[in-house]
Amino acid sequence: MSAGIAPDGPHAGLGGLCEDIRGALEGWVPGMLGVHVHRSVSGPAEVARLVGAVAEASEITVLPGDGVTARAELHAAAAGSFTAAVGRAGMDVRAELAAVRAGCRRAAVALGLRVPVVF
Questions:
Q1: How far apart are CA 57 and CA 49, in angstroms?
Q2: What is the pLDDT of residue 8?
Q3: Cβ partners under 8 Å of residue 89, min gap 6
Q4: CB 30 within 8 A of CB 70
Q5: What Cα–Cα distance (Å) separates residue 116 from each residue in 44, 52, 102, 105, 109?
Q6: pTM (two decimals)
């Protein structure tokens, strides 16, 4: 796997990317948007449902910071997660999920939240 697409360690590969997205959202979404984040996700389809719910919730919530940018990032992440969930032949689902993870992180930054840097 190329650097930056999938994490190494206990959450490596496709499942690791899904878990990274879930874990990142779990840190701020329930308190800010009122969306319940399950303890685990089993793949891109569940990530798509979660990120879609977060994007929808952002539309009806007053957001701190740059809410417009956060909403745009969340909607772009939701679109990417749905693309990953349907996965076309020859598509690198890991790259799509890495972009979803990055979009969720950018949304958090736009809201003024601290986001740890991960190498």
A1: 12
A2: 45
A3: none
A4: no
A5: 23, 23, 12, 9, 10
A6: 0.82
